[in-house]
Each structure stands twice: as C-alpha cells, then as structure tokens.
Amino acid sequence: MSLEEKYRVFISQNPRFIEILKKAVEHEEAHLNDPHYLGWEWSDVRAYPAELMKLIREGIVNIKYKSRRYTHYVLANREEVKKCLGIK
Questions:
Q1: For residue 78, which phi and psi values (nearest 5 degrees)?
Q2: CATH number, position 42
Q3: pLDDT tens track for 54-82
Q4: For the stretch 28-51, what's the b/e string if a residue is b when 16 or more beta carbons lie within 10 angstroms of its beta carbon?
Q5: How many helices, marked H, and strands, marked E, lie in the chain?
Q6: Rounded to two decimals, what is the model's pTM?
C-alpha cells in the first residue's frame, strides 16, 4: 500500500481528523520561510494531544521538538496529506 493510499484509508475511517490536518497544513505553509520553525502545538490545530498521538502512531505526524513544557509537531509528509485532502 502506498503512502497516499494509507493516508486516504485513515482519513476515510477517521473523518474527524480532516480539520486537524487542514489546520496543520495551513500552519506549516504559513511558516515555510522561517528557518527556526519548530512546528505546531496541539492548540494551533485545536486537537487534543491524545488525538495527535493517533496521528503519530499512524505515521502521519512526527514530534519535531519536545521539552518539559512544550511539544511541537510536524506532518511527516505534507505533500501527501495535501493530496489526500484535495489541497493545492
């Protein structure tokens, strides 16, 4: 199964993640030219950390930075997520 197919299956089985992933794409693309970008936090995409853990387990999201106080996430493959969501 290709990565795109895997993402499509996950999204079709879990449609509540569509808005979370759209917000993640928007956040990452808004910071494309920021060399110090650490990623987005759970509050930026309005998702509970437990929901983000499901995305991490599925390989859709990665943790880019973690400290005692903060956890920053990034999409593992933004272009594939955009294709699955129909974002150009």
A1: -60, -40
A2: 1.10.10
A3: 999 999 999 999 999 999 999 999 999 99
A4: beeeeeeeebbbbbbeebebeeeb
A5: 5, 2
A6: 0.92
